[in-house]
Design goal:
alpha/beta, 32% strand, 276 residues
Length: 276
Amino acid sequence: MSEHRAQVLERWDAGPRMVGLRVRIDDGFVSTGIGDEYLRLHLPDRTTTNGADGSPPVDAATGYYTIRAWDAVTGLADILFLRHGHGRAAAWAAAARPGARFFASRQRSGYRPPADARRILLLGDATALPAIARILELDPRPELSAVVQVEHAEEQGTATRDPRVRWIVAAHRDRVLAGALAARGVEDGDYTWFAGEAGEMRVVRRWLRHERAVPAEGYLTMGYWRADSERLIARMRALPPEAAHELEQIWASGLPGEEQRDLADDAMVRWGMEER
């Protein structure tokens, strides 16, 4: 796992609930140039210090965050954090000052629509805005469009003003993104990308994979956060050892990723961690 030292250079308000950081990521970091590229951030809190070798403290707050913009000339990256009350990273970012240091690792991306995709649809809530904004910026195809759900009207236009975006103002519990996808439907040659609350992600994935039989290369779904994270953590702590063992075996099985997700989803329902 490649780890990169990083430093905050600038902080600004990027929207009603969004804070932006301009950072320098060292140790040879180069962006993939893929719109939904994300990094795991190791963010120190008041009680943690870096190890003697400069490695991230093992108990630092961590989370995965999308690179909103990357300047290949200066090597600087912009990362946006939504202040939505889930996780410590947004609070850290809101208080960060120039010179603040952290670490980044596990560089990943997932947006890979087929070159001949007929229609490309991005679906996401406010946590997905940095990724959606960068995808739209890097992919000018007219067949690409996006539906973004925000909880407050003033959030419309945050991170992007691309005319290919349709904004929906609604509470996340209404699952309007899943509804928008079902209303639009999917056809042969479509590609669907979803990122947002994990419960709605499961609904969207189930509809695409099991109700509409979309092949794995025709979609990507990611859960960026959970509305019921405390409930899930409590249930996981109460699991018997054999449940954890079953999940470990699924992820180590070597099966294709979507088949692993099917098996893991079934196991989590059976063990009471998720609802059908």
